Each structure stands twice: as C-alpha cells, then as structure tokens.
UniProtKB/TrEMBL annotation:
SUPFAM superfamilies: Thiolase-like. The keyword Protease does not apply. It comes from the Bacteria. Belongs to the thiolase-like superfamily. Beta-ketoacyl-ACP synthases family. This is 3-oxoacyl-[acyl-carrier-protein] synthase 2. Residues 12-424 form the Ketosynthase family 3 (KS3) domain. Pathway: Lipid metabolism; fatty acid biosynthesis. Keywords: Transferase.
Length: 427
C-alpha cells in the first residue's frame, strides 16, 4: 500500500483494529460469544448472586463463571476488563509482554459504595445506634476498610489496567452512561488521528448488577418485569417490550494507525471509519421528542466516515427493549436512511446479553466487527410481536450477508449519543 492509502478522504491517519476481546453472560472470548449469538442463545437468567424476593425484576445477564467478588462493581468491572484486554492484546500481537505502546481509554461505571459496604461501615461507626463522625474516625483507625479506599476511587480500574498491560501516558477513565464504551473507542480514534499515539487500548466494562443498581433502574420503570422465562424478557422493537434487562461484561479493541500496523505486519481486522457524538439535554432518561440529537449523531458518524447511508449494510442497534428508546432509535434511523430503512437489516444484541450499560458500546463494536468478518448478522431474539409503528427489517434468525459497513448505535441516559461506522476496508 502507498503512504497515501493509509489516509482517509479527509487526510487523517486511518484507524485499524488489530485485536478484539469480549466477555458477556454468553461466555468468555470471541469464539464462545459468536457461537451463542449466531445460535440465538440467551445469557439472561434468574439472578443468583443476591436475594430477589419482593423485587419486581429478578433477572439479569450476569457473568457467573469468573471467580471474583460478585457484589463489588469496581472489582467485577476490573476483572472483566482484564479478561477482554488480554484477549485483544494477544490477538493484536502488540504489547504482549506488558508493554503496550499506546494510550488507554476505558469506560467504567460510576464508582460508589454499594449497600453491603455502606452497611458494614455504618455498623462499625455506630455509637448508641447513631453513625457519628467520631465513630467513622474510629472505624477508619482500625484499618479494616483500607482495601475499599482502592476499590471506590474513580479511575482506580484504569490505573490497574494501565499497570498490568503497560499502557503509556495517563489512563483516561470515562463514564457517559450507555454510550460510554463507544465513546472510549471514539477517544482512541481521535488520539490516533491527531498523531498523539500510534496505538490505543479501548475498553468498555461494567459489573453493576447488584441490588442497589437493580432497584434504582426499577424505580425509573426502565427494567423489564417479564421474569418468566428470563430468556424471553428482552424483546427489542417488539410491540410487547416493557423495559431492558441488566447485563454485564466487557469488550476491548486494540486500535492502531493503519500505516504502523501494516509496517509491523499486523493482521487488520477492520477499520473505525467514523465517530459521531451529539448531546441531548432534554431529560435525564427520555430522548428529545423530535429525535434531533439521535439523528445528528448518526449523520455525524456517517459524515466523519465519508460514507453515504446507502453504503451501510446493517445496523447494530442500541435496541434496549424499552418503549421509549426503540421508538426513538427507529425514528432516527428512518429519518437518516429514508425509504431505504425498510431494507437495511437491523439487530440488537441486547436481546441475548441484556444491556451491559457502560460496556455496551464496546461490546457491540466487537460484535459488529465479528459480523463483518463472518458475513453473518446475529439475530434479535424474542421478536414475535412486531410493532407496526416501527417498520424495520429486524433480523430474527442469523442471516448470511455480505457486510462491509456497519453502523453501531449507542444512546445513553442523559442524552449522550455516540455512533460508530465500522468497516472491512477503507472508504
């Protein structure tokens, strides 16, 4: 390839993907996840890690096969991130000796003490039944809670990942709701385009399935209450959808300047051609009724990729299975794609793995690249009752197709919208 061919139409360095890693409730690694996704198998099940008696929602896509503390979100998030990063770095062949030659951008959930830790601290600090400042000082002096100091500081997960894999510069932690994982990828892309680094390790991770998070989302009426059977609860774009199902896991991508990757003989798995991000301050959970920010985010990604809508072969939907999100995403896609939208295959991985929250954008980017590599679109399961108000070509069984361009959507609470255009070859 000539030097010119390593630049996009806007003259910026092309950003290649050379490594992928993934952990979800369906399994650990690309092979297990891809086999389960294309078979239409669900990882959503009854929650076993804590009692759910009396709760409206008793199901989730938890990762139960890794040995770690199940009720401490930072610990879970860190473990998932480590597993995903290890797979991605091994595949890329770069930085495999704990000396990754680039920056770390990692999406993590908001970090705070959960109820079990708060209860233990309150009990240790109580004086005659009341928690006092003096009691808290006395509890701290016992040094019993020192390990929590490390767990519950925002950025600590990034510090541990940076130390383990030897990334360069200050690790960047971010938390932009459900678009976080996609935003981590966007930051890596932008750093490479600016020439600040030749490589970036981009991760989205989330281990937030705990009683407090479950109840908070339930109080927002955001979760499905169709607990039986668990695997049928998440039904994106269906008329009888009633909310999302919490999931957890992580995904990692190794991004490189395409010229540098080619020079070292790396196998290029695909390219991140475009990123679009638009904010929406309309409401903390609802989208703007006119869909303008969602439409703008999709168009921004296409424009950044110098790609026309008709070049997109399939859409990896945000597709949460909530009445609001699915309607607004469909409106946004139809506004951008027009009459073509009825023939563009669209699918939501959340129907099988649940909503992995801060990890979702990265998880779905990995799945989008696997879709390109395998020429097979995973299905949206549980699509038995189509919504007549959402006239989309929803993929209900794994579909073989020639896929060279994927639009991957991520739309978060608080109006944080990020879209990616992923491809097999440069434009």
């Amino acid at each position: 390839m000539t030097k010119l061919s390593h630049r996009d139409p806007k003259g910026r360095p092309l950003v290649a993907v050379t490594g992928l890693g993934i952990v979800t409730s369906l399994g650990q690694g690309q092979a297990d996840n891809w086999a389960a996704l294309t078979a239409g198998r669900s990882g959503i099940h009854a929650i076993e890690r804590f009692p759910t008696t009396g709760l409206r929602t008793r199901i989730a896509g938890t990762v139960d096969f890794l040995d770690t503390e199940p009720l401490v979100a930072p610990a879970l998030s860190q473990r998932f991130a480590e597993e995903a990063a290890e797979e991605a770095i091994a595949q890329s062949g770069i930085g495999t000796k704990g000396d990754f030659p680039g920056a770390l951008f990692i999406a993590v959930p908001p970090v705070e003490m959960e109820w079990p830790q708060r209860q233990a601290l309150a009990e240790a600090a109580a004086e005659n039944g009341d928690v006092t400042y003096a009691g808290l000082q006395r509890a701290a002096a016992t040094r019993r809670f020192d390990p929590w100091h490390d767990l519950f500081i925002f950025g600590t997960v990034a510090d541990h990942i940076a130390e383990r894999f030897g990334t360069k510069g200050s690790p960047i932690s971010l938390s932009t709701a459900c678009s976080s994982g996609a935003t981590a990828i966007q930051l890596g892309v932008e750093a490479i385009r600016r020439g600040e680094t030749k490589a970036a390790l981009c991760i989205g991770t989330d281990g937030s399935v705990n009683p407090e998070s479950l109840i908070r989302f339930s109080l927002l009426s955001a979760l499905s209450t169709q607990n039986d059977p668990p695997e049928a609860a998440s039904k994106p774009f269906s008329k009888n959808r009633d909310g999302f199902v919490m999931g957890e896991g992580a995904a990692a991508l190794v991004l490189e300047d395409a010229e540098a990757a080619t020079a070292r003989g790396a196998k290029i798995l695909g390219y991140v051609l475009g990123c679009g991000e638009k904010g929406d301050g309309f409401h903390r959970t609802r989208s703007s009724p006119d869909g303008a920010p969602i439409i703008a985010a999709i168009r921004a990604a296409l424009d950044d990729a110098d790609t026309l809508p008709q070049a997109i072969n399939t859409i990896n939907a945000h597709g949460t299975s909530t009445p609001e999100n699915d309607k607004m995403e469909a409106m946004g896609c139809m506004a951008v794609f027009g009459a073509q939208m009825g023939t563009v295959p669209i699918s939501s991985n959340k129907s099988m793995i649940g909503h992995t929250l801060t990890a979702a954008g990265a998880v779905e980017a990995v799945i989008s690249l696997l879709t390109i590599a395998n020429g097979r679109i995973p299905p949206t399961i549980n699509y038995a009752v189509p919504d007549p108000g959402i006239p989309l070509d929803v993929v209900t069984e794994a579909r073989d197709a020639s896929v060279s361009r994927v639009l991957s959507n991520s739309f978060g609470f608080g109006g944080q919208n990020t879209c990616l255009v992923l491809a097999d070859e440069p434009a």
